[in-house]
Amino acid sequence: MRTDFDRAYVTAHGKVAVLTLNHPEMLNAASARMMRGLRAGMDHIEAGGFRAMVLTGEGRGFCSGASLAEPPEPKPDGSASGAGDALEHTYHPFLRRLRDTPLPVISAVNGAAAGIGMSLALMGDLVIAARSAYFLQAFSRIGLVPDGGSTWLLPRLIGLARARELALLAEKLPAERALEWGLINRVADDERLMEEALALGERLANGPAALSSTRKLFWESPHNSFEAQMALEARTQQQVCQTEDFMEGLGAFLQKRPAAFKGR
Do 126 and 249 share a domain, yes or no? Predict the structure, then answer.
């Protein structure tokens, strides 16, 4: 079943929702219209009882970056938006939405993930790329600095030296090398990308409610000292010990049977 939004759509695959960027004639260049559609798609997914989601792009590319063909929307007061305003009002809300969703997120990267499209892809808890896919920090090619959180994400994923290399040289990073560098989790043959992404989604959708708390712990960890993070883990563990899924998991372990988690 497919539900359409502005330049985005959602398809349901059991307990897994697929949110697709849908402007293939522009290689899914990210515009204000698309960002509105993606946020509406997230509303639909989070209200729909899904337990995991896949983010991907329609056609030959995941996302070619911010749309340069469409002017940014004016600021709330009606004045013209600069590049920084466009980031804060157009793109950042969706990036935060991906960070804050309780659902595990899998990015299935087909073709190019460039500019802010690379940031969108790297927001996934798990990132799987087609063998022909590539990543590109394209900003310096047009005289801009990296954005979309990439100067925060990249050093933490691949180290400062490689992050600088990608940003300063603006060279394509093929999927296989991205895997070697630890930027992504898996590479799949092009024709099997969605099959493998949905299989991962199903595994996560059948997992315990604690997965939501796990992803939140990892998002919080860069801001905390070791002691603060241990304290946060203890508080979170106390909370998830009260879930039905913990009782089911414990019972399954003691009875030597597979657990049947319900996400609560």
Answer: no
Question: What is the SS3 assignment for 19-72?
Answer: EEECCHHHCCCECHHHHHHHHHHHHHHHHCCCCEEEEEECCCCCECCECCCCCC
pLDDT of residue 35: 96
Could you tell me the strand order of the sheet in which 105-109 lies?
2-5, 8-13, 16-21, 52-57, 105-109, 126-130, 186-188
Strand partners, 5: 8
- Number of compact structural domains in the chain: 2
- DSSP letter (8 states) at residue 112: E
Give the residue from 211, 172, 176 showing the smallest Cα distance to 190. Answer: 176
**Reported pTM:** 0.94
What percent of the chain has a predicted confidence (pLDDT) above 70?
95
CA distance 148 to 114: 11
pLDDT, residue 79, reads: 56
Strands 112-114 and 2-5 come out as unpaired
Residue ending a domain, choose from 173, 189, 205 = 205
Lowest mean pLDDT: which of 12-21, 46-55, 61-70, 138-147? 61-70
Q: Mean pLDDT throughout 75-94? A: 77
Task: Write the CATH number for 106.
Answer: 3.90.226.10
Domain-embedded: residue 19: yes
| Inside any domain, residue 62 | yes
Asked if the model's pLDDT at residue 80 lies above 60, the reply is: no
173 plus 239 within the same structural domain: no
Question: Is there a single domain that holds both residue 192 and residue 75?
Answer: yes
